[in-house]
């Protein structure tokens, strides 16, 4: 599947009423809701290039690296096994929230160390966006840059 230069079509596995929406414009062909085997956002026709997992809060992330760790690590491992080049987890919260949370029994240092362990083990980048609005901007930018550089033969 090919796209005109500077255009990207984003896939999302999230329900339309949840998550980010990407409308058709000069730099984006819009968004299609489709089943993805892992992650929440990818580029149609370039599922090997970039996958982005979205977390709405440090609380959600903590659940994933705590009680749901096996499932979460399986998802990250599938990204690695299928050769996805760029893997991201975008968290709509502030990094410092890890140390100011009251929503889990996990010690803040355990959360902190788990994030870094997963980054190294699965070559996944955790980005703490602070807010949903900034998370949307970051996800859009990552998808557009990945598509642009793929079209230019750089990745």
What is the element layout, followed by pairings?
Layout: E1 9-12, E2 30-33, E3 41-43, E4 50-55, H1 58-65, H2 69-81, E5 86-91, H3 108-122, E6 124-128, H4 132-151
Parallel strand pairs: 1-2, 4-5, 5-6
Antiparallel strand pairs: 1-3, 3-4
Describe the structure.
- With 155 residues, this protein is of the alpha/beta class.
- Helices cover 36% and strands 18% of the residues.
- The protein has four helices and six strands, in the order ββββααβαβα.
- β5, α3 and β6 form a beta-alpha-beta unit.
- The N terminus is likely disordered.
What is this entry, summarized?
With 155 residues, this protein is α/β, with parallel strands linked by helices. The chain has 4 helices and 6 strands; from the N terminus they run ββββααβαβα.
Characteristic terms for this protein:
single chain; 155 residues; alpha/beta; six-stranded mixed sheet; 36% helix; 18% strand; globular; disordered N terminus
Tally the helices. Answer: 4
* SSE pattern, N- to C-terminal: EEEEHHEHEH
Largest sheet: 6 strands, mixed
Count of beta strands: 6
- Going across the biggest sheet, name each strand in turn: 2-1-3-4-5-6
N- and C-termini, Cα separation? 16 Å
Instruction: Kindly estimate the percentage of residues that lie in beta strands according to DSSP.
Output: 15-25%
Helix content: 25-40%
Please tell me what the overall shape is: globular
Uncertain segments: 1-8
